[in-house]
């Protein structure tokens, strides 16, 4: 009887833990979607408040490794002119660390550059989730790689 009760307790704990992870993953999808919406609607404060003070944004150009401060200074004129960028997630996968305080994700985005891929890391600071690292990449179909490399020459 004690073994049955112990088994049921473990099963219930696992079930609650899985449900909590699913709820958290749904919450993080919404946070990332909102971040993209903030750029599309040029909500500068909200967009940059989501990025950690030590956050890094890596753009598509090899020179683009921006601190939050650098990226916000570069981006401010675009937001001020009402024309930032619009990225819409087509698909996204989020993985949570066992602590539920770190998450990493990858996503395929519809952008003005066509489909792009991005990866990111989120951290929970005890109050809010913040974007710690984001890398945006332009995708190139394998069968177009040779022609692309010729263009780079």
Characteristic key phrases:
153 residues; alpha+beta; Nuclear Transport Factor 2, Chain: A; six-stranded mixed beta sheet; 4 helices
**Highest-level CATH class:** Alpha Beta
How many domains, in number, for the residues? 1
Summarize the helix and strand pattern as letters.
HHEEHEEEEH
Shape: globular
Mean pLDDT over the full residue set: 90
Widest sheet: strand ordering: 2-1-6-5-4-3
| Count of alpha and pi helical runs | 4
Largest sheet: 6 strands, mixed
Secondary structure: number of strands:
6
β-strand percent reads 25-35%
Q: Architecture, CATH level 2? A: Roll
Q: Note poorly predicted spans.
A: 7-16
Report the CATH topology name.
Nuclear Transport Factor 2, Chain: A
> In whole angstroms, how far apart are the ends?
74 Å
- Give the class from helix and strand content and strand pairing: alpha+beta
Helix content: 40-55%
Using only C-alpha atoms, the radius of gyration works out to: 20 Å
């Amino acid at each position: 009887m004690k073994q049955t009760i112990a088994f049921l307790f473990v099963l219930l704990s696992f079930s609650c833990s899985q449900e909590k992870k699913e709820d958290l993953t749904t919450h993080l999808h919404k946070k990332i979607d909102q971040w993209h919406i903030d750029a599309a609607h040029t909500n500068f404060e909200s967009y940059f408040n989501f990025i950690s003070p030590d956050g890094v944004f890596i753009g598509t150009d090899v020179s683009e490794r921006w601190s939050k401060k650098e990226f916000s200074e570069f981006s401010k004129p675009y937001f001020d002119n009402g024309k930032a960028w619009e990225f819409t997630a087509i698909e996204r996968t989020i993985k949570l660390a066992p602590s539920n305080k770190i998450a990493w994700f990858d996503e395929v985005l519809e952008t003005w550059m066509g489909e792009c891929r991005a990866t990111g890391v989120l951290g929970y600071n005890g109050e809010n989730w913040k974007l710690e690292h984001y890398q945006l990449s332009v995708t190139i179909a394998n069968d177009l790689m040779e022609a692309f490399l010729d263009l780079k020459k």
